[in-house]
Every structure is written in C-alpha cells, then in structure tokens.
Amino acid sequence: MTLSAGDDRRILLIATNDTFCHVYQDLTDLLATADHGEKLAGAVEFFDVTGRRLHPVFSADWRLEMLEAGTAPAEPEVVRQRLSTVVAHVTQYVHDHPDVLTRSRISWERALSELPRLDDPDLSEVIGALPEHLEHDTGNWLHNAMHAAGWAD
What we know:
Oligomer: single chain
Low-confidence stretches: none
Largest sheet: 5 strands, antiparallel
C-alpha cells in the first residue's frame, strides 16, 4: 500500500494527547530519525497528507519498520482540528515559559505572528505550514517549542 496520495509522501506524527507534532518528508526520514534514538515521551499516531491514518508495523524487537495505510476514509478535518489543538497547546506553553523563545532569540510578538495558519482547505497545505523535522535543527523556534511543550501539562 502507498503511504500517501500522489507523490507527496510526507508523514505527520501527532501525540495522542495533541500536545506535539512533527512532519517528516517520508518514511525513510522518519525511520532515520527513529534510528538516532529520538525520545518520545508518549504515544503517537501517524497520518498521511490526506488525513488517512497510517498504522505502525514493528519488528520483533519493537523497532518501527514501516507504516501501512489504514482502510478507513481519510479524516482531514479531524486531523486539522488536532493540529489546531497542538498549536494552541504550544502557544500556551510558550506564553507560560517565555524562556523557550529566549533560546531562539525571538520575541513573543514575533512568535505569535509566525504561528502557522491552519485554515487552508487543503490539509497538505496545512501540514506544509508546520515546521519539518530536521535532525539537530536548532533554528526553528516552533520546532524547538514543540519539543519543550510536548506531553507537558
């Protein structure tokens, strides 16, 4: 099964409690990151750019090997709402923990102005507005804030 519609193979990872998300270019990108031991502090779900759920397939030693497309219809509006919840959580976290922005040398006002717009009717465009996961990326304040806020109360 293909993981996404057309040539767009991006994968969206969302924490099950909607406090964190990441965008990966494709399965190879996701697996390479997993091989580097990225620590995830909670359960996650995967989606393609249409909003279709992707089910993880694990090896005998519980390493992620691949993702299989689900058979249920895509739910782009549900995924969009979940992304809105993630962004709202990160926004509140940064408001309550402004030191997260200090490391990126960005003001609260500028951070607010740079929050992704999630109202595009095309979920692929919404996903494109989110920061991509780039290994050792310390330059994107939203990416860094997601790590700080992920799974935080």
